[in-house]
Design brief:
Number of strands: 4
Strand content: 35-45%
Helix content: 10-25%
Structural class: alpha+beta
Radius of gyration: 11 Å
Number of helices: 1
Order of helices and strands: EEHEE
Largest sheet: 4 strands, antiparallel
């Protein structure tokens, strides 16, 4: 399992969420990240999901 970093921000740059999640691949990580953001009602905020190598898997501004 790989560890991915999921972060969400307010418009002014304050961090709303800074979590890690484990997934076997980028697609699974993207699905898990979207589910977490939806559950926490953060889909419309600026957010990003980065792979262990720094690749952006999910991004919204």
């Amino acid at each position: 399992m790989k560890v991915y970093k999921l972060t969400a921000y307010e418009a002014k740059g304050n961090v709303l969420m800074d979590d890690s999640l484990e997934a076997t691949n980028d697609e699974e990580a993207k699905e898990k990240g979207q589910a977490i953001l939806e559950e926490k009602e953060l889909l419309e905020t600026t957010h990003r999901l980065a792979s262990p190598t720094g690749k952006l898997i999910l991004f919204h501004s």
